[in-house]
Amino acid sequence: MTLKTHLMIAALAAAALTTPADAQGRGDLSGALSGFAELDADGDGVLSAEELRAPMAARFAAADTDGSGTLTAEELAAAIEARMVERGAQIAERMLARRDADGSGDLSLEELAGPRPAMFERLDTDGDGVISEEEFGALAERRGWRGIVGHGHHGGGRP
Known about the structure:
By secondary structure, the protein is an all-alpha fold. The chain has 2 domains: about 5-110, no CATH class; about 115-159, no CATH class. It contains 8 helices and no strands. It is elongated. The model is unreliable at about 20-30 and about 150-159 (pLDDT under 50).
C-alpha cells in the first residue's frame, strides 16, 4: 500500500470514528459546550487525556466487530457507511426544519428547490437577471471550490 493510500484510510477512519460531540463543536458554541459536558465523565470541570480518548475508544470498539483489536478494511468501510447514514439523517432533519414551509413533514419540489431571491441577488452582482460564469467563478473562489469554473461555456457567446 502506498503512503497516499494509508493517509486516505487514516482520514476516513478518523471521520468514521469522530464522535457526535466532536462534530457538533464545529462552528456552534452550544454544541461545543454540551460536548464538553458529555466528555467530562467525572464532572470535575476539566478534561483529562483519558476522557478525550474515551469516545474514540468506544467508537473503535464498536467498529471492531470481530474483537481483534484492529480494524480491517471491511470494518472501516462499515463504520464509515454507518457514520454517513447518521450524518445524512441529521442533514435531512435540518433541511426539513428550514424548508418545510407548509409544515407537512415532507419537502415538495417547490420547497426544496424554491426561489431563494436573496441568494440569487447576491450572486447576480451586475443585476442582469442571470448568473454569468464570472459571477459563478467569484462564488467558487469565495467558497474555495477548485475546478468548478471553466469547463464548458453556455450562452453569452463566449468561446
